[in-house]
Write a structure and sequence with these properties.
284 residues, alpha+beta, 4-stranded antiparallel β-sheet, 9 helices, 34% helix, elongated
């Protein structure tokens, strides 16, 4: 009996723990799609981006994350075992294991995570760290400078067990993947005024609380180095979710937020659309 390739041994151990695995070739790339599954329709039963992990019945692993499996027979059968002989790394499908990986690509991203996210299981990478949380969500790239989210329909390299205790996926990570919806249909207008609220006493009318919230929102927009559109929308959404129902936002507050966004290159029209979309999303 031939010896089991070391990486296949690692993959089998992960599979026992319920982690769907797949082999990677050099350059962190999955093995290519087979001819059978690139046809129309593919034999595996769906588009490459939609097939279920482990359902491919083709001669070799394909479809990247969708080829990940926990079935030891699949991993060791001759057609599927062959790529492990030349594989450069083991990858896994985080979402298939009920996990989310926050991929921090550099020291600046790691410093941000340490200040903004709850601690969790941490794995060192070549240039940064993987922060792994219990819970699955949609994957998204470049949610912040140097930060990707890998969970459903994505794969991550297996780099060891890491250190620390795994925490439950926090809302702060889920919020990073929020995308701005298309501009809401509306009558052309200049939306720069505050919301008037829904009556009753405003619980936020303290100068310190309100000023701190607006200042933090301005800072978040100003410090954004990429994904400016999404950052502006998420910031408007956060401000309105906290202060939009009671009418404590004034013209001056809204102007400050719009000014911060326009300083980063946003147009007045985009600011208005983002504000409108946030109001619509919150049902205000």
């Amino acid at each position: 009996m031939s010896a089991v390739p070391p990486l296949l041994g690692t993959a089998l151990a992960l599979a026992v723990w319920g982690v769907p695995v797949l082999p990677l070739r050099a350059g962190k790339l999955p093995f290519g799609n087979c001819p059978a599954c690139t046809g129309t329709p593919p034999r595996c039963g769906g588009r490459p981006s939609m097939v279920v992990p482990g359902t491919c019945a083709c001669p070799a692993p394909c479809h990247a994350w969708a080829a990940a499996t926990t079935d030891p027979d699949t991993l060791t059968s001759p057609p599927w075992a062959r790529p492990w002989r030349t594989a450069a790394a083991v990858a896994y499908h985080p979402g298939g294991a009920g996990l989310t990986v926050v991929d921090l690509d550099d020291t600046a991203a790691v410093a941000w995570a340490r200040a903004a996210l709850p601690p969790t299981l941490t794995v060192a990478t070549t240039r940064g760290e993987h922060w792994i949380y219990r819970g699955a969500m949609s994957s998204s790239n470049a949610v912040r400078p140097g930060v990707d989210i890998k969970s459903l329909m994505a794969y991550a390299r297996w780099l060891g067990h890491g250190v620390g205790t795994m925490s439950t996926l926090p809302d702060a990570v889920r919020a990073l993947a929020v995308k701005e919806p298309p501009p809401a249909r509306r009558t052309p207008q200049s939306l720069t005024g505050p919301l008037r609220g829904h009556g009753g006493d405003c619980p936020h009318r303290t100068p310190v609380f309100l000023e701190r919230g607006i200042a933090m929102a301005e800072q978040r927009i100003t410090e954004a180095r990429s994904a400016i559109h999404a950052t502006v929308y998420r910031t408007f959404l956060a401000v309105l979710s906290k202060h939009g129902r009671c009418g404590c936002l004034t013209d001056a507050h809204v102007t400050r937020l719009f000014t911060a966004a326009q300083t980063k290159g946003e147009t007045a029209r985009h600011c208005t659309d983002a504000w409108t979309n946030a109001i619509t999303t919150l049902g205000l």
